[in-house]
Amino acid sequence: MHWASSANSVRIRGSLAALALIAACSGGPPARVTIPTGASMRSAADSLKASGVIRFPRLFSAYAKARKLDRDIKAGTYVVAKSASWNSLLAALRGGGEVRAVLIPEGLTLAQVESVLVKKMQLPSDSVALATRDTVWLRRLDVPTPTLEGYLFPDTYFFPPGTSARTAVATMVRRFEQQWKPEWIRRLDTVAMSRHDIVTLASIVEREARRDEERPIIAAVYASRLKKGMLLQADPTVQYALPQYQKRLLYKHLAIESPYNTYKYKGLPPGPIGAPGAASLQAALYPAAVPYLYFVAFPDGHHEFRVNAEQHMVAVRQSRRAWDALKAKQDQEARASAATRRPGG
Questions:
Q1: pLDDT of residue 339
Q2: Cα(345)–Cα(339) distance, rounded to whole angstroms?
Q3: For residue 195, which of 91, 284, 292, 85 has the smallest C-alpha distance?
Q4: Are 268 and 232 contacting, i.e. CB atoms less than 8 angstroms apart?
Q5: 84 and 19 co-located in one domain
Q6: What is the pLDDT of residues 74-93, one digit of tens each?
Q7: Domain range for residue 202?
């Protein structure tokens, strides 16, 4: 009886191994699979099936159990090939083929991106700084500035353990190249701007816009100012020039000596002031056909656009009243909250 059970077990494992080899023949791009904490092998198998990695989750679970590999699987996000063998999948689940998800939001400055990479990927800061100044990429992208500011495309990236700073930066720059559409190259002649100019303008639009529908209008205001030889007077460029972020810009801040201060120097700044997303790049290349030369922000995120300075000053006064009202409301709520926290309040 013991011999019969052993023989049967061998036959089962042999059959499952054959199925594992057959199942591994499906190709395709790598898939991302998330295994939650405390997941059983069966639920992990279901996740692998849902991601298109395996076709037979019950057989996969049975194969893992037969090989005594159905325990101690590690939670995390995995990047696995759809052609991976069942043995390699099990090794990854038990050994921790975990990847790090790194989110780079639109508008981050290069210094902020470097900080994210250092913190999330536990990379040496000097290696990250060196990678973002790689002259090979600077020449390839025809970037006239000393860094890749603006060219590390904002997105969510999945990096396996051991990824170097150079590889991470290269991945992000390649994502920028993938996002840059072929028709955009032809569009550069129409707008009479270089790609670096467009990325720079798009980075300003990215920092200004809060609503997607306003991006082409904001881009149009700056494009019109450039054509007329007016100062851009873009607050985000001043923020970029300052050594520390200022919640509210004052007149003294507008006097800072920097080529990025568009209140002092005409034209675009030397380079991008952050990482623009695809929507802002599109807006910079295809600005709206509007006559506006001015705009001002309101607390709800929208901007009021005006044609001339007189109209603009009226909108500015309205904006200041709205911001003052918001601050008064926040102060009142803060006082009320503090009162409720006091003993006996």
A1: 82
A2: 6
A3: 284
A4: yes
A5: yes
A6: 888 887 877 788 888 888 88
A7: 183-290
